[in-house]
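Lecture 7, part 2: worked example. A protein chain together with zinc ion.
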Amino acid sequence: MNPPENRIESTLLRRINERRLLEAIQQHGPSSRAALTRVSGLTAPTVSKAVDALLKRGLVEELDPVTPALGRPGRLVRMAAETATVLGVVIDAKVCCVVATGLDGRVTEERTRRFESPGDYEGLLDGIAGACRGLLGEGGAPLLGIGVSVPGLVNERLQEIVVSPNLHLLDKRNPARDLSGRLGCSAVLVQETDGLCLAERLYGDARGLADFAMLDVSAGLGLGVMSGGDLLKGHSGMAGEVGHITVVPDGIRCGCGNRGCLETLATDAALTRLCSEREGRQLDVAEVVGLLADRPDAFVAEVETVTTYLAVAIAAVINIFNPTALFVHGTLLAGSPERFARVLEAVRQRTLTASLADCTIRATRSSKRQGAVAGIIRQITQGWAPTIR
Ligand SMILES: [Zn+2]
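Predicted complex, written out as structure tokens:
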């Protein structure tokens, strides 16, 4: 019989191989065992054993190829889309949503429930738990876990939201832990910009990239940085708060309590506020989209102001982190090719030339729904084995 330390080593090695295969399947989509052997660099018997273990754990499923290859048709292995369910929860200042999907991470409108964000924490949990139960009640595969995307500063050591400047009812809370208690399944807290990074890497244009950054400029200004394939965390997981750099020392009050933070001038929320002041009534983002389309000349100064500060934010990220790509998540400037081109023009004036030459900047296609889902899928597929690069 093997001594115990050898058994531990072989278990660990098996798990590392299984995780490596999962990453290959996520990256390449449905693949035959032969293809997985090629891309993973593992031996055919090791791949076969690892696939069997993953099938048993319910993390992958088999399907027949659409056009069988000549000779013996090899069945394809893919992430469990039909045989496993995960839920993605997005908590946001105005609207919350819950989406159900498989481990393939495909989000659809049919399996999404939205509701206006309640004004108190218990109401929020009730709303989310109700939406989760509704989606699960429609039948389907067993639930493996819930990813909960939240705005604000998440202290990973303490596992709580330290402060959420645009949604203070989350301060000192952990809705993932509370939902886990109510629904009796595992749930993970996902800082929303980290979630966007994970989603962009799994499903978007950052596939295969090890060094990129994600700037969320919707309600607040959040930054996620993938460095060498890992999310940059800092001591407690709170790194990346460029949104609260002071840019106007006596500017307007920010949700964090300080004045004149970059977040108050560089976001969709900032442009919405400035346009509301111009119009003399409270607008929402959708209304501003309409106004900018109908009467662009009426808001030139407002757009110019936010364009300038967004360019400052983008330039700061590129100068500090030297990413190969920077993704911008937002609606009013990032969502309009013309206005985004103006932002990029302003970025060129404010970024170190060498750093900018290294970096492509583009608007992201990922959503926070995908981010919440990517967060729980990462927990399920990677939480149990270290990676080896
Ligand atoms: Zn602030």
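The longest strand covers residues 143-150. The two ends are 32 Å apart (CA to CA). Keep this in mind for problem set question 3.
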